[in-house]
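Two records follow; treat each independently.
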Amino acid sequence: MDLKLTLSCILLSCLLPLIIADDVKVTIKGATLIARTDDNFVCATLDWWPSEKCDYNQCPWGEAGLFNLDLNNKILSSAIKAFNPLRLRVGGSLQDQLVYKVGNSIKKCPAFKKRNNGLFGFTRGCLRMKRWDQLNNLFNQTGALVTFGLNALYGRKESQVEKGLWLGDWNSQNARDLIAYTVSKGYKIDSYEFGNELCGSGISARVEADQYGKDLIALKKLVRELYPDANTQPKVLGPGGFFDQKWFATFLEVTGPGVVDGLTHHIYNLGAGVDSTVIDRVQDPFYLNQVAQTYKDVSRTVEEFGPWAGAWVGESGGAYNSGSKDVSHTFADGFWYLDQLGMTSTFNHKVFCRQTFIGGNYALLNTTTFTPNPDYYGALLWHRLMGKGVLSATNQGSPHLRAYSHCTKQKPGITLVLINMARSTSFNITLFNDENLYLDSVNQDSASNLGFKGYQPREEYHLTPKDGNIRSDVVLLNGTPLQLTESLDIPAMRPKLVDASSPLTVAADSIVFVTIRDFHAPACA
């Protein structure tokens, strides 16, 4: 009988996942900041795609594009309001084919229609002021900070010699008419972005850097003219495309100081949405590390050629072509997303815009039900907890544990986000506070004197997937599913208060935000 029981236990242990617990040291350097973000670092996008936008034999946009979106949906407004405020970027692939039915320059106002030889497979479209009024009503009611993407191809012609290259000066008249109308109605715009993915080799179209820079100077003059009060003057952003060091440097040299307020670039580092390996890439720290060089190069380009402009990720959805239908809306995507937020902040990026708030497979809200997906709650926690001061956080242990630390948004203290990409390993975290500017905290003999012992309870937010399934679109906060309230509002997200003497543990396949009020970080004072 004992032999049978022993054999049964051995077989059972083979069937169950083996969870290993590792001890890891995380050192926070609280004496100085390594970077600063904008107060509203977290950003999300709204896109012009019509319902006919399809990829890989699926059409995941439904009625979520800006022309069709139900702007009266209670969940939509609640989800925006919860950020108080949320930065929204309005634009996308079709913005350089969008004209505005205002003033006298536009006679016809057609809707986007599919056309094989059109840019991105569509004809030119038109925004009527009635819809612009409706959109601004939503933005005003929810307190959103709006970045509006302008058509930067208006007035240009495609080269007869080189396909994809657009030539000539930008015609600013249609943009002038829209901005003048916007000012006359009292609509608040935080920033205007010039064009979408026209830099470098472009995607469907491109503009040379010197021409683009010349035209952006014209836009800046236009914005200064129509917004004479410098205190309410919107920022000007560009180029909103994939990083090409030579193109970006030339553009910044052409524009010069005081023109570009934000240098925007796009990231889709998980590959095509149809790629079956996306699920593996989101939990592979070595794969995710590959994009770090781009962030570093962008940051260096800003420092060298345009220190007056902050670096922004203007659009990033992980997997391109509307995202992965099996991954982008699930808990697993949070490993990639929150790691990107942490990584870009350490490289002195000011804003990170997630593609999308709603629409496609990569949306923060479900495209049809508007129910928040797991990444929505991760974004909201980041926005509420992580301040703009970025601290150095080093992990002396597994590469599958990511650690990022910021000054807490609501002082005092610091907040860490700990991302455990390991499938079968939990981590017991020991924190070290290194305030010495000259001590090598990697030295183990010295590090023993730096161990942090707190006295106030820690505020912990443990995010885990429902039933332990990382492909679930339901996320648990401290063991409780995050669900909309009966009134369709975003649920309260309260921390678990943990005695400071208790171990800090990060379970396998989980993400933890931790606020420590009595962590002494002079840089956060």
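The next record belongs to a different protein.
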Amino acid sequence: MPFSEVIVDSVRKPSFSIRIVITFLLIVFHGYTTPARADNNVYRNINIGAIVDVESRIGKEVTTAVDLSVQKFNSNNSNNFKLHIHFKNSTGNPLQAVLAANELIEGNEVQAIMDVGTWQEAALVAEAGNKAQTPVLSFAAPAVMPPSRSRNWPFLLQIATNETGQIKCVADIISWFKWRKIIAIYEDEPYGGDSKVLSLLTESLQQFGSEIEYSLALPPLSHLIDPKEALRDELTKLREKQSRVFVVFHSSLSLATHLFSEAKDVGLTGRDTVWILTESVASLLDTVNSSVISSIEGALGIKTYYPEENKAYQDFFTQFRRIFRSNYPDEDNSEPGIHALRAYDAMTTITNALEKLQNNNITSKALFDTISLSNFSGLSGKILFKKGVLLQNSTFTIINVVGKRYKELGYWSQGLGFSKERNGNDTDIYDDMVNWPGNIRRVPKGWAMPTDAKRMRIGVPGRTSFEKFVKVTDGPNNKYSGFCIDVFLAVHKILEQSYPLPYEFVPYNGTYNDLIDHVINKTFDAVVGDITILANRSKYVEFTQPFAESGLSMVVPVKSEDYEKAWMFMKPFTLEMWIVTGAVFVYTMLVVWFLEHRSNPEFRGPFKYQLGTALWFTFSSIFFAHREKIQSNLTRMVVVVWFFVVFILTSSYTASLTSMLTVQKLQPNVTDIDWLKRSNSIVGCDGDSFVNNYLINVLNFNENNIRKVTSEYNYDGEFKNRSITAAFFELPYAKVFTNKYCTGYTAINPTYRFGGFGFVFQKGSPIAADASEAILTLSENGTLRKIEEDWLYPPSECSTSETTIETESLSLQSFWGLYLISGATSTICFLLFCFHVLKNFRKYENQSDGSATPTEESVWIKTKKLAQYFHNGEIKIPDRNTAAVFAQRKADEWISPRWVYVSTSATPEHPHASPSTEIEMAQTSDDNL
């Protein structure tokens, strides 16, 4: 009676042999044997090899799942084949696996091999399969797929996805909770396969600004004489590291259980610690006892997702548990894991291929080609190969260890990220669902947080140039004060609302760069002081949000400006303003003359007299001192608007000039950095700060021309002794210095900006981010402003003194509307007057034509008449008797302000024969326009 043959190599233990016998009995009594076929056809035996570590939990699950698959296939009477499974025990040793593969190929003549081991083991087994052209189905995959994979191992099929998905999932978890540094822990492989995983993890973390602080490679448990002592020594080293985020990957379950137990004993599983377990450990948590689970309570893990709701899984689950319990009664958990599902799916690919090759000659090559075309939904997911690689999107279940079990938090898949539901993307599910180590209600810092026993050591500059920022008073108990100290105390008060943060100040008498170096080498946990944020410093330490602005500022002595200059009176207005004002003045003068000189005797007379009168009237109106009377209503309208313009201009001019003459004006005696360099002038700066190097390396000052000044109190003396021409300060220092010497020095606006003042923490410290948030809170609620007022604002005697005040000249931009109104009014009045004059002139001509013989007149003559009419108010009609009289009268002769109109009725009947008559036009009421 045919049945599945299970053969194990000679290194198996007696207990395993007993389990095989029990399996055989179960097969017999549960009906898994296949009766002889009615047609008496001969079955063809197909040998399949399996290389597993039979004593491991994974090996036990795989052998059970393979047996189930073989039994199902062999029980089908329609098949012409019967499977015989040959198990070989690799004991977890890749070299033993290679020997087992050769034995299966040569001794058992297997037509396919399943390898359940590491990727390094699978690669060696695939080499053996290449020589015999035997398909090898691997349960492992590399972290990074080699480009030459299909060429190097043409008969290798991966039934598992590569580790890229796991690494990206771990990186996303770390990024989501904003942990900056991690410690990677893994079981060292003798063939160095972990280096690629570390490289991939490092690259993935760098995308989110995180990094691996330390990687701990642990030897296999079988290589350790005293595992407890060896692991304790290694974990003790981790206590010296700052990171408390531990990522465990590529570890056997036996090593992981010892690791968790020792980590708890040395205090690495408490508050603010994080443990992340990859699939090699997380998928087997169901199989370990409760004491191991409780030692890593709060840990996060990732397991490959597989559907459990379908009928195929439920049937497999029931049969698997029954057989597994019978074969391994000592195991507490009999539920199948992902490895059992993959083993069943691997056998399904083989059996499906055999069914397709029922009537064909079965060769290893034909079997490989048929398996490569597999396309079905298996228990572990979609089974579809491309060039020997499983095309299956990586989807993981995120678990959280709680008590003696674990709970599922949600899912992660490539392309979608985190989600609470299988196909969702609500990525905020973890913040309030995770049970963290130590039962804390917030996200762990993942950092070695200070305690009362080990306080945070904070370095403070003990030698500063400006004591308003940091001042250390020596004594039995040093006192610390200053702007920076008060800001830190306010920040610390906010942080203490979330978690305790014990600290101690430690004064340091050295340069600022040395102080930062002590943070890098972990002598200090942080630095509080006037530390400038610079790019080269940020590479090695963590800065907080700046709490004070910073930039390079040059401070120089000031000199009083001589305001009694000859042309000072011209400064209230700009040149453009003066020109436009003069143009409006002249235009207004001409319009007034034009409107008044026909009817107002004060604007009559010789042309020079008329021009002088108009000019004097317009100019004297500026001071409201004019005495000339105006008669035209149009003129009055022009003058009223002109008075308004004059009032505005004189008021503005007086105010601007008064400001220029009364406000103290101090100007810097040096404003150009290039001049300082060209003239080799000596400049001063703080020798302990970065400014000294900045002047040399960036601004290209001669090192010999830089004088180092150690205290703010020495700068004034250096200037007065003319030892320095200018001093370079960071902007906050310049503000303090100029506020103290408000009448003697001024600061030139900064040309070069820096990152500001910030507190310094070790690289990756989560406290830096919390402190930055606290600084923003202080800025928003006004506390930071109040601290600035207490320390940095000027004293009362300087609060109203400004050394760089300069009243700007008034420009046309402020008055063009006023000028527009004045010009428009004058123009409108001028046009109205012209219209009225033309109307009267036409009336006059009509009256003249009615009493005289019409004659043809040229345009020139008419124009002369109009001009004469406008100028004299009369038109002379010469004849023989009056020609001499008219010729003797001068054109600029005084004309009476009132004229007598001579009626045309007095004209002789024949005007051409009568003597010439002088016609005068009397001023009418219409002339008062």
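Discussion point: The chain has 29 helices and 32 strands. How would you locate this feature using only the token line?
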